C-alpha cells in the first residue's frame, strides 16, 4: 500500500535481509522457518483484552505506527496490511524462543517491538513480542526461570521494561541515546544496567561501553535465556537513532566469533554472543535474535526465523502455544 513511505522506519528491511542471506548462501533451507501469525490466544498471554480491542480502531493503530493516513483506512484493511504483518513477526519471536530450545540458538529477522507493553503500544510497536517470548518460556518450558534482556536499539526499550518492572527473574541491560524517544522515566526504574549515550556516539566508545557493561551484567545475573534486541538504528546516518556507529569493517574484539575482522555491526554481535556461553554456565545458552542489519536488496514484507540445524525428527513449524521441554541455559536475540 506504500504506507512504509510515510514513516522513516524501514518497514521493508526484513525481506531484504532474508534475500541477502540467501544470496550470500549464509542460510540453508534447513535453517530457515517461515514465521507464523500470533493468535489472539497467544497475545493474551501478555496483552489485555482491552488493548487488543483498541487495535480494532484505525485511529489507535495510526497513533502507534505514527502514520496519520492510517486513520482514514477501514479497519479491515488496517488489520490485513498493517497489523497482520506485525502479528506474524510477533509469532516469529515466540517461535524463535521455541527453536532456541530445540537448536541452541535462533534469530527472528523481524520483531523486537520493545516500545510495546501489555496495555499500550507506541513507536511503531503494536505487540509486546519480547515480553511474550520470555513469558512463554517461563510458563511452558521446565527449568527456564531467569532471563536477561540485552537491548542495543538506539531507543530505550520502555515496553519490556514496564512489563517486567519489579520482576527479579528478568535482568535488563539497555544501551540507548538518552536524548531521543521515548524518554520514559518510569520505565527506566526497571533497568538493572543502564547505559545512556550522547548524540553522535562513535564506534570505539560505543563498543567499549557495550563490552564492559555486558560482562558486568552477566556476572550480576546468571540467566537461563538471553534475549538480544539488536536494533540497527545505531548506524551513522539513521534519522531516528542519532548515533554515529560505522557500518564498515572493524577489528573483532578479543574473543569475538570468527576471528580477524567482521562487519562493524556483526563484530559487535559476535563479541556479545561469544561471551555468553562462558558467562552463562557450563552449557551454552540458546539464542533468539530479532532484525538484522539492513541491506540494499529490495524484497519487502517477508520475515522468517533462522535457527541451528534441525535435529532429527523436529518439525519445521510448531504450535506457538506449545513449547517442548528443553535442557540447559538458552540465549535469544531480537531487534526492531
Automatic annotation (TrEMBL):
Q: Which SUPFAM superfamilies match?
A: Arginase/deacetylase
Subcellular location as annotated:
Nucleus
PANTHER family in the record, alphabetically?
A: HISTONE DEACETYLASE 11, HISTONE DEACETYLASE HDAC1-RELATED
What does the similarity note say?
A: Belongs to the histone deacetylase family.
Q: Where is the composition biased (Basic and acidic residues)?
A: 316-328
Q: A single GO CC term, please?
A: histone deacetylase complex
Per the record, the gene is HDAC11
In short, the EC number is 3.5.1.98
Q: Which InterPro entries match?
A: HDAC_classIV, HDACs, His_deacetylse_dom, His_deacetylse_dom_sf, Ureohydrolase_dom_sf
Pinpoint the Histone deacetylase domain residues. Answer: 7-248
Report the source organism.
Lynx canadensis (Canada lynx)
State the top-level EC class: hydrolase
Name of the protein this chain belongs to? Histone deacetylase 11
Ion transport found in the keyword field: no
Q: Which UniProt keywords apply?
A: Chromatin regulator, Hydrolase, Nucleus, Repressor, Transcription, Transcription regulation
Determine if Repressor is one of this entry's keywords: yes
